[in-house]
Design a protein that fits this description.
There is one protein chain. The chain is of the alpha/beta class. It has 16 helices and twelve strands. 41% of the residues lie in helices and 13% in strands. It has a seven-stranded mixed β-sheet, sandwiched between helices. A five-stranded mixed β-sheet has the order 1-11-12-10-9. Helix 6 packs across helix 8. The chain is globular, with a radius of gyration of 24 Å.
Length: 474
């Protein structure tokens, strides 16, 4: 099984990035409960035939849809070791927690957080954002809100993030009992960064209306374009207004490892909390999200609870408090820290920084190829490793460019050559290429551009067909 996975990684370019699951393969997953045992080898053969060829493809260098890291062989091996240990990282006194605590210390140092800051592995930035919002809520309303609930408090809390912020933030406000409407979306400038003047105006307007602004959320790597908000500017406003500053750095925060990018993250060290993923630019296998909180004791008080079966001791297996379950919702937690620990130690931060810089260089190369073509159009500035562009139907003004480009993306994905995704920029559908995989090189960028042009030309070449033309008109 291990050899098969090494072969898979070594020959990944020979496979399609992604391919649709055939009906017969889907039908194989409709089997009844397996009451009788099967040979391990037989189940593995089924995996090779029905699972491996039809994964989502982010290991492949041609995968550019969404921001997914490519994983590594070292991370895969570490995941096997963690599964063998089968350790619960919720608490108690064992070596797994020391590994996680070491990474917490490393991340404090990397991002300039104080020694009393806390850190926690979670599934991903969506959960990390939720934890940060909960701690900020409790800081604003007092810890009694855990018992009495938000309805018992007269304060009406409001939070602020840019129009380009991730959708998980709305859900976080919802899950915290504040309602998604408590999140005010602030306009962005031409670089898709949050408009600081508009933010100030919205905060002051809400205060006059009787609201209590409690949270500003900056983004380091917006989901659509990869823009980095002015974190220094946000920190200044948060300090003046005495508002919690959280940074959603899902993938962009790890840009701090690249000397070319780190200066653009100035101000991140002033955040009250920071969320990011090791499984994106950090190339750790899924999943490995992380949250840092400047005020570690406040973080603990927002989640800790007593229970007889979780009694703490100063000696024995129940020693070692505080435990990770005191800082988040999960008591049962996997050993995510081990594959992260292996990745950081085996490859080193300098190599990861070079990789991050290289993906941004590839994005600029894609930008160059787009701007050099009369048939392609850049839809947003290229900030980090994300490029938003589209095929221009300049010869056919009556055509709906959104429909054409949506079809191009589907055809690209089904070609097995490259797999970008889509988004909308100023109301226009964009082909979105997120270059995150360490295996991606210029040949993959060329394949994306050349295949996009070929598909676009083929689609518009047949436009004389009345039925086809009608399908792509406004």
């Amino acid at each position: 099984m291990l050899d098969d996975m090494f072969d898979y990684l070594e020959t990944i370019r020979e496979s399609p990035v992604w391919q649709p699951i055939p009906d017969a393969v889907r039908a194989s997953f409709r089997q009844r409960l397996p009451m009788a045992p099967s040979q391990l080898s037989a189940v593995h053969e089924e995996f090779l035939e029905h699972v491996l060829p039809y994964s989502n493809g982010n290991v492949h260098p041609g995968f550019m849809g969404w921001v997914h890291g490519g994983g590594t062989a070292a991370g895969m091996l570490a995941e096997m070791l963690a599964a063998g240990l089968n350790a619960n990282l919720g608490g108690r006194d064992h070596s797994g927690l020391e590994v996680e605590r070491q990474i917490v210390r490393w991340m404090r140092e990397l991002f300039g957080f104080p020694a009393k800051a806390s850190g926690l592995f979670v599934t991903g930035t969506s959960m990390a954002n939720l934890i940060a919002v909960l701690v900020a809520r409790d800081a604003a309303l007092g810890l009694d809100v855990r018992r009495s609930g938000v309805a018992a408090n007269p304060k009406r809390l409001t939070a602020y993030a840019s129009l380009a912020a991730h959708g998980s933030l709305h859900r976080a406000l919802d899950f915290c009992g504040l309602g998604s409407e408590a999140l005010r979306l602030v306009p962005v400038d031409a670089q898709y960064q949050i408009d600081l003047a508009a933010l100030r105006h919205m905060i002051e307007s809400d205060r006059r209306a009787g609201y209590t602004p409690f949270l500003i959320i900056g983004t380091a790597g917006t989901v659509d374009t990869g823009a980095i908000d002015d974190l220094n500017g946000l920190a200044l406003i948060a300090g003046e207004k005495k508002i919690w500053l959280h940074v959603d750095g899902a993938w962009g925060a790890l840009g701090i490892l690249a000397p070319e990018i780190a200066p653009r993250l100035a101000g991140i060290e002033a955040a009250d909390s920071l969320a990011f993923d090791f499984h994106k630019w950090g190339q750790v296998p899924y999943d490995a999200g992380f949250v840092l909180v400047r005020h570690g004791e406040l973080h603990r008080k927002a989640f800790a609870s007593s229970a007889a079966y979780l009694e703490r001791e100063t000696r024995g297996l129940a020693a070692g408090s505080h435990w990770p379950c005191d800082f988040g919702p999960d008591l049962s937690r996997g050993f995510r820290a081990l594959k992260t620990w292996f990745t950081l130690k085996v490859y080193g931060l300098e190599a990861l920084g070079r990789l991050i810089a290289r993906t941004c260089q590839l994005a600029r190369y894609l930008e160059q190829r787009v701007t050099e073509s009369d048939e392609l159009e850049l839809l947003a500035p290229v900030s980090l490793n994300v490029v938003c562009f589209r095929y221009v139907c300049f010869r056919y003004k009556s055509l709906n460019a959104d429909r054409i480009n949506a079809r191009i993306v589907i055809d690209l994905q089904e070609s097995g050559i490259v797999a970008p995704s889509t988004t909308r920029i100023n109301g226009q559908l964009a082909i979105r290429a997120a270059i995150t995989n360490h295996r991606t090189d210029r040949s993959d960028i060329d394949a994306l551009v050349d295949t996009t042009l070929a598909i676009g030309r083929a689609l518009t070449a047949g436009i004389e067909d009345p039925e086809l033309e009608a399908a792509y008109r406004d």
